[in-house]
Design goal:
single chain; alpha+beta; four-stranded antiparallel beta sheet
Amino acid sequence: MAGVLRLSKKSAAIQFRHAKMTHRLPTPVKRHSVAGMFGAYGVPFNERGSSEDATGGGCIRQLGVALEQDGARRASSDNSYTMMQLQDILFSQGFGTRRICCGLIQQGLVRVDVGNTLAICRDPTTSFAEDCLVFQVQGETWSYHKRAYLMVHKPAGFECSQKPSTYPSVYTLLPGPLRMRGGGAAAGVQAVGRLDQDTTGLLLMSDDGKFIHRLTSPRHHVPKVYEVIVKHPLDEKQLCRLLEGVVLDDDPKPVKAQACSAEGELHLKLTLTEGKYHQVKRMLAAVGNRVEGLHRSSVGAISLTPDLPPGQWRWLTPQEVVSLTQKAPGSPI
């Protein structure tokens, strides 16, 4: 017929299948899965255990409202915290690219603590307040940290480098998310200063550039205490020279210890406010001795936690972070 578009049987079948797909109904969810996701919010189930109610998608909408309201309550309690979408929260905490984070959420592998209940959230765009946010990713519990401040008990045999040459990197002691926080070329936490591969003890790590600069810049005179085992017995002359200053081969300006004391015949406690390359070893060599063992016990006002085993890490408390950023007594800066 003239002016009438005729469709072949093949084209008609393709259009029919397309229309059927675009109007496909949601797949029902098993009752136990729905209970795990929505039971904490009192969302009713229909007779078939589906996540759909008479209006369509009601349970999912009710969960979204409950999660949004919980996030709003958190945000209203502290104006310094902002609302963030769940996919952005996971990305900022180092759980992969935004696409990966979105996939983790949609697969039901992320739970969020709302009202002391860990509930599955499958909507990547659901917003939460950062304040005291606790969540689970693949069964592992995490708390939200806008910035990461860590204490690591470095064991011997690890290099403080992202690209180690001989020994394994100290960063391998940390879980993956801490090494990927923030994304980009400078992702993850960085060591606050370095320790030689054979040096043990306190190593701070952070992804806060200002914090790292504050602790590593010689202008701020942050004291670092080392426990040194020497080869030859210590004497008063060696201690006096360390306090008065010794000249190293790369700098004509004398380098001196802020404090030093003999804790034993072969045990020296040394406090420095600079961080030159191999400084402790070179200073002891300059006074006629040799370092056999080196352990850093404190940085600023923070000492290595006695019950933190070698190779383990923990978050610094807010009070510890504040104490590290305060002006040191007698510091000109």
